[in-house]
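Internal tracking record. Fields below are filled automatically when a chain is submitted to the structure queue. Please do not edit lines marked as system-generated. If the sequence contains nonstandard residues, flag them in the REMARKS field before resubmitting.
Queue: standard
Priority: normal
Entity type: single polypeptide chain
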Amino acid sequence: MSVRRLLATATAALLGGLALAAPAAAAAPGASLAASVTTVGAGRLGSSAGAVLGLLGLVVAWRALARPAGRLGIATGPRGPLLALAAGAVALVLGGLVAVTAEGGLGTGNGLGGAYVALLVGLAATVLGARALARSRRRTA
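SYSTEM-GENERATED OUTPUT FOLLOWS
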């Protein structure tokens, strides 16, 4: 399976799941779980940090695959792919933690949407980092 097809399938699955999710207002008609727009809680902060780390890992993994002779490439060893794997794993953990502990649904301001983004980007960074690491080990062997 190519990387493009994997990313397209993961994105379609995520968007399909988000489209089928029930609104938070339907779960509790009398209570409002929504946070203010200016409130930065632990959920928003954790999911944002996870998404940024996942994006950093994705960029590093992409550069390691695209430019093998560069500073973070595979010609100089597994430094870039290992950094991408670590950043992707941390993004997956942060996104999963926020997704499990978020109260309410999407749009309530608890960071659930950012957690889904962190999970998706962290998974992509981990897959590309593993691919780059396998390529670096294949070249050095």
